Structures are given as structure tokens and as C-alpha cells.
Amino acid sequence: MAKRAREEDIVETDRIAGQPHPRETLALIGQEEALARASRAIRGGRPPQAWLIAGPPGIGKATFAYRIARYLLSHGASNKGADDLGIAPNDPVVPLVRAGSHPGLLALKRGLHPDTGKLMTVLAIHQIRELRDFFNFTSSSGGWRVAIIDPADEMSGEAANALLKILEEPPQRSMLLLVAHAPAQLVATIRSRCQLLRLSPLSGDLLARELATRLPQLPAEERTRLVALSGGSLGAALRLVEEDGLKLAADAERMIDRAASPDFAATFALAERVAKIDRSLDSFGGYLGQVLAERIRARAKTNAPHLDRWVELRSAIQESFARSAGLHLEPKQTILSAARATAKLARRGAL
């Protein structure tokens, strides 16, 4: 059996600065319907061999998975625990899960490449082999073994095939929790062997209350803007603060507002700033697309002309930013090209 990580040794490529990691989070925000389904299955003693926990990023899927894991590791598939699958903070399972040292829990995620030190693009086959060894290990206490794969929709083809073999012959008293942002990217044979638990974006009111609790120092108007920009994702809202997203979103709105008479010196300065912020090009492209979508919807209500041209421009801009971010192309040229294309169309009919 592989040696388990100590808390200080865990590489946390998925932690949001200043916020608790999902394995440290006992509270679950929203998701009552999915939680009720999971609770009925587990407390009724008939859980599936694997759950596919699906939904947009940042809505609590990993927190949900760790909640299931803690319950199974503490109570097994029984009705000995709470209806909402919560366990007491002083339960012995809690500090072990928090430290990543519980012998019955394995969490697999994309890590850092041993040669380059950069985040790997996929979950590799050697990680799934670690999962096979983990499930083959017989617990001395006869307890449950739970594995979390997050995100499961970013496995290599070899890793997916290896996982399928595990799903075809699952060991007793084991649970596999696949966390997926885009479950359709998983091969159909894996999806067919999992029960789907689909989580939903948080409501605006629920997200606003959570942000007020977590970010009390932030002005109320900025929290309102976070709710509007994050699409019901608490994780997205928190990353917006971490990555100066509110300012980038305001810059995107300003760029569209001034499209007919652009200030290319200011646009160039903006492009240089975006180039210096890690992962910000894709975010800025998303903000541009969101602002354009809002303006297109507003113009549609007034039957304004040439909406098809704006829809085509929005699609082209989104594709350009996604391609540039994916291929690590020069951010400055991408932003300047978007500004020029928007200005050309805006002169024919401003948004």
C-alpha cells in the first residue's frame, strides 16, 4: 500500500487562496435534491458502486464528494448517521480526511509534472493504477474504501480504459466518486456504470448570502457584481476576487462601451496587464462574451438591426480567446484583434 500524504505534503493545485479546501469543508451549500438522493441510497444500505457527480465548476461537487466519503468512512452504508450525511466536527474521521491521511480514502487529481513542475493536462494511467492497488488492499478494520477522482473528465485514454476495468469488477465495501465538469467527455461505458448525481448552480440569493459570510470586507455592490458574473458558482466568484476579476470584467465592459471610438493606447495597456496575470486571458475573453451577450439581448428586445452580425462576432471572439488560451498564444494580439473587430462593427451600429 502506498504511503499516504501528510497534510503539509499535499500539492493543492485546486485550492482557492484564502479559502478552505473541499476536504476541510463540512458545510454544503445548496444541492438539497442530490443530497437527498445520495442519503436515501447510503442510509438505505444500497449505494451504487460509483457515483458520477456532475455540474459546472465551483458549485460544490468536490465538497459533496468529501461529504459522502466522510459519512461512509464513519458510518458505512447504514442509517447510523444524520439524514444529511453530515458528521460531527469532533468525529475521528474529520482530521484524518482533512490531513489526507485516512487509510480508507484516496483522492486522485491532476498533479504537477515531475520533470517540468507544471500542472499536468490529464489524469495519467499511473494514477489509476494507484487506485487499483488501493481497492485491492483489504482494510484490516473491515471498513469502507472510498476514492475520489477530480476531475474525472480529464483522464487520458489509457487511464479511462484502466478505470473501466475497475468498474467492471468493483470490490466489496468500496465507493468510487467521479467528479466531472463535463460528463459527456467521459466514455459512454464509464458513464453507464455510474449513477448520475447532477448538481445545480447556486441561486443568486444563496450565493449572495455565502459571499457576505466569506467576504464581509468586500463592498456590497462588488458582491452583487460577483453574483452577476459568476453564474451561480461560488468557486468562480471567489476566483474573481483572487484574480482581480472584477477589474477585468469592468475593463471588458468599458471596451464594449467605447467600441465605436476605441482608445487603442488604453486597450494596449490593458492587453499588457492581462498578459502578466496567470490564466487571465481566458477569463477576460469570457467577460467580453458575457458583456456582448447582455447587449445583444437588450437590442433584441427593441428589434434592433444586424443582430446576426453581433452574434457572429461574439462567437468569433470566444473562439479566438479559447484558442489563444489553450495554445498559450500572445494575449496582446488576441485582445487588440478583438478590439479592432468590435470597433469595425460598432461603427455600423453601436451596442
Task: Fill in the keyword field for this structure.
351 residues; 51% helix; 7% strand; disordered N terminus
Can you walk through the features of this model?
With 351 residues, the chain is an alpha/beta fold. The chain contains 14 helices and five strands. It has helices at 32-43, 61-75, 93-98, 125-136, 157-168, 188-192, 204-214, 220-230, 234-242, 245-257, 264-276, 280-301, 307-327, 331-346, and strands at residues 50-54, 105-108, 145-149, 174-180, 195-198. A five-stranded parallel beta sheet has the order 2-3-4-1-5, with helices on both faces. Helix 5 (157-168) links the parallel strand 3 (145-149) and strand 4 (174-180). The longest helix is centred in the last third of the chain and has 22 residues, at 280-301. The relative contact order is 0.10.
Number of strands: 5
Distance between the termini: 61 Å
Biggest sheet strand order reads 2-3-4-1-5
What is the approximate shape?
A: elongated
The share of residues in helices is: 40-55%
Order of helices and strands: HEHHEHEHEHEHHHHHHHH
Number of helices: 14
Q: Whole-number radius of gyration?
A: 23 Å
Catalogue the unreliable spans: 1-9
Mean pLDDT over the full residue set:
86
**Pairing-aware structural class of the strands and helices?**
alpha/beta
How would a textbook summarize the main sheet?
A: 5 strands, parallel
What fraction of residues sit in β-strands? Answer: 5-15%
